[in-house]
Amino acid sequence: MPLPPFCSGGSASRRRFLKLVGRAGGTAAVLTTMKEMGLLAPAGATSKPALQAQQGNGTRVVILGAGLAGMTAAYELRKAGFDCQILEAQDRAGGRCQTIRGGDVLTEIESSQTCSFDEGLYFNPGPARIPYHHTAVLGYCKEFGVPLEVIVNENRAAYFQDDKAFGGQPVLNRRVVNDSRGYIAELLAKAINQKSLDQEISDLDQERLISFVKSFGSLGNDYRYAGSSRGGYITGPGAGTVVGEAFEPLGLAALLSSDFWDYKLHFGEGYTQAVTMLRPVGGMDKVAQAFAAQIGELIEYGAEVSQIRRTPEGVRIIYSGSDGTEKALVADYAICTFPLSVLAEIDADFSPAVQAAIEAGGSSYAKAVKVAFQANRRFWEEDYNIYGGISWTEKDITQIWYPSSGFQSSNGIVVGAYIWDNPIGERWGLLSPVERLAKAIEEGSAIHPNYDEEISAAQGVTVAWEKVPFSKGGWAEWEDEQREAAYQILLQPDGPIFLAGEHLSYLTGWQEGAIQSALLAVEGVASQVAQTGYSHIS
Questions:
Q1: What is the pLDDT of residues 280-319, one digit of tens each?
Q2: Euclidean distance between CA atoms 281 and 150, whole angstroms
Q3: Domain at 12-42+177-225+243-251: CATH architecture
Q4: Which of 289, 381, 466, 523 is the most buried (most CB within 10 A)?
Q5: CATH topology of domain 60-94+298-363+476-532
Q6: Tens digit of pLDDT for each residue in 136-190?
Q7: Which of 121-130, 185-194, 204-213, 483-492 has the lowest mean pLDDT?
């Protein structure tokens, strides 16, 4: 995750020092240090376009897709007097903002599954969390009265597992995190004591710096790391004479032989992953439902678009209705929120540059896969004292998520795999849902040996987003070169057609990106109307 830019005047020695802080403490430590040194620029806030009532004066806008981007655009434009209609191919609103419950059917291109979860249990196959600084989506939740709860995104009682380290046995998160920090602090303390960093940090108080490093890494008076209660206990402290038996520190060589340190070690300190993380009570689709409650009458469901045409007066959209008949809809403007992976396959008369940019962006969507199981005993709580959070493994499944609600109840939903590495996701997408479920159980047993006794494929469900109609991928993944070329082209309207969605943001994969992109499109349409002073279609 890139760091915010330094203010002007930062020295090379400071940058080297901050690199050392980052290696020792991760992004959070760097951000704190930068703030104290006055090097952190304040973040800007997203605001809605300041549209006036009846500014649209009946101008017709067709919106393609009833995901969060499409519904945001319709909601804001209608308030300003625009005449909006949304065409949605599916029988529900929300797009990838979806929640699966018992009885729901999850359809992929080559298969379908019917969820058998008990009443009250659910699984978010798409977005599942909202960072505290995603003010646009949180603002709509507040405006629409969507109740929120905290999701436990990181848990020191969860596990890391890697076949290459510790004999393949799972190791407590708190041991890996704190022992890693301890060893790096020891190395840094030695470098400071040996005056290896004098030139780089000559303007800092070295005595206070060594105290800082000692405290950060829980080092002894000899500045060596010999373990810490931060790593937890084999037997915890108790009453009477029970002092507790702390874990011995994990070996540095063993920690290095694993890949935990690559990004998993500081995953929970990333900009979009740091506490506090939130979610709607009862499922992520509560956000989509709240939008639909505001503008639902504008949505035509079962409307599959086949052609997008520009006309002298605006746009003409050809689509099949829910009854299969071909229909046409004309409007002054269109806002298309289809994923580029879908839009690239639609017959449209975009300009050659825009069409090429759509195809470039559409070819690089994440092949994300998720798997979820109902467990009829909350074994992660009863056997492991895990209440929410994520365990990590180097196996394909990558993560196991534990539920952040219903603590100490009788059952719950475990996310048994969350894959976003494209080679792995592509392999899993070729598997049938039954094969994915079986493989997730097999690999999850490396973390929980009794896994196959606690869950079963009969109460499991899986989604490979590359195989989901009208999505064809999890989210856009722009290469740097594409950001400089194709992405910039798609930010501009193609005549009366504007594009919007998470793919046109620097928050791809997040609902915030979709909403912010929609607000930009709304502003663009309103600006064009203000410049022309009239609508094209009477």
A1: 999 999 999 999 999 999 999 999 999 999 999 999 999 9
A2: 9
A3: Up-down Bundle (1.20)
A4: 466
A5: FAD/NAD(P)-binding domain (3.50.50)
A6: 999 999 999 999 999 999 999 999 999 999 999 999 999 999 999 999 999 999 9
A7: 204-213
Of residues 96, 115, 495, 206, the one with CA closest to residue 335: 495
Residue-range domain boundaries for the chain? 12-42+177-225+243-251, 60-94+298-363+476-532, 100-157+276-283+366-467
CA distance 93 to 74: 13
- Give the CA distances from residue 138 to residues 134, 185, 252, in Å, rounded to whole numbers and listed in that order: 6, 38, 42
Residue (of 466, 430, 464, 462) closest to 113 by Cα position: 462
How many whole angstroms separate alpha carbon 162 and alpha carbon 447?
10
- Residue partners of 196: CB distance under 8 A and separation at least 6: none
Spatial CB neighbours of 192, under 8 Å, sequence gap ≥ 6 = 201, 206, 209, 210, 213
The predicted-structure confidence for 23-55, as pLDDT tens digits, reads as follows: 444 434 444 454 455 444 333 345 788 898 889
Question: What pLDDT, on the 0 to 100 scale, is given for residue 35?
Answer: 45
Q: What are phi and psi of 183, to 5 degrees?
A: -65, -40
pLDDT for the residue 20: 54
User: 443 with 395: CB under 8 angstroms?
Assistant: yes
One-character DSSP codes across 14-63:
HHHHHHHHHHHHHHHHHHHHHHHTT-PPPPP------PPTTSSTT-EEEE
Mean pLDDT of 512-533: 94
Please report, to the nearest 10 degrees, the dihedral formed by the alpha carbons of residues 472, 478, 479, 482 taken in order. 110
Instruction: Dump the DSSP string for 487-538.
Output: HHHHTS-BTTEEE-SGGGSSSTTSHHHHHHHHHHHHHHHHHHHHHH-S-S--
Residue found under tokens 């899993």: 428
Task: In whole angstroms, give the CA distance from residue 395 to residue 389.
Answer: 18
Bridge partners of residue 310, in order along the sequence: 315
| 473 phi-psi bin (left φ>0, alpha ψ -120 to 50, beta other) | left
Q: Which amino acid is at 166?
A: F
Distance CA 307, CA 86 (A): 15
Among candidate residues 341, 309, 306, the one with its CA nearest the CA of residue 497: 309
Instruction: Please tell me the pTM assigned to this model.
Output: 0.89
**Other beta carbons within 10 Å of 335:** 31
* Closest CA relative to residue 472, chosen from 336, 354, 367, 397: 367
CA distances from 466 to 55, 205, 353, 427, 428 (A): 40, 54, 25, 11, 10
- For 144, the 3-state DSSP assignment is helix
Q: How many CB atoms lie within 10 A of CB 504?
A: 25
Residue 415 pLDDT greater than 90, yes or no = yes
